[in-house]
Amino acid sequence: MASSPARRAAIVPTALAAFAVVVVMNLVHEAGHGLAGKAMGYDVIVRTNHAAVATGEFRSATDALIMSAAGPLVTVAIALIAALYARRGSVLAAGVVLAALVSRLIAAVVSLNYPNDEARISTALGLGQWTLFGIVILLLSLLAALSLRGKRLGWRWFLGAYIGTSLGTALVVLGESWFPALRF
After folding, report:
1. Would you place residue 182 in the very low, low, confident or very high pLDDT band (cuts 50, 70, 90)?
2. pTM of this structure
3. Which of 1, 101, 150, 161 has its CA 20 to 30 A from that of 22?
4. What are the residues whose beta carbons fall under 8 Å from the beta carbon of 125, sequence distance 6 or more?
């Protein structure tokens, strides 16, 4: 039995929304790094999936930790705000919370080879590489569960979210060399 065009089409808007959410959230995450660095007086180069001090060197280890923390803090703040809207019924807001969780899960996987934000901070604070990732992922998992609770979205929504998230993540990671860097 073939699905109706309306049912098939339900996947497309969800995929487009998920794609946009992932790209925008990642850019805002990186801008968080960039603005933190700028606030501390550094020239910062921001790309779609990376922000760095232009000189490559920080004046102190504390400055490096602050700049590393800024991105995940922005992501968690966005997820907290979106969770409030999701509790009021917004499906898009629930998708934002889910995208925040997925972004930090991907960052954790990447940290197996290249320590990402939470891994660098956690290690520098003597907590082991995975402690802060565990805390952030647990918090975002709880927010996602609460945000999705009772929504009865169905497999088409989750398939669309998966497709959009996958394509958005691919653009952010693989497209980094295609897009111009911004200087803060």
Report:
1. confident
2. 0.90
3. 150
4. 65, 132
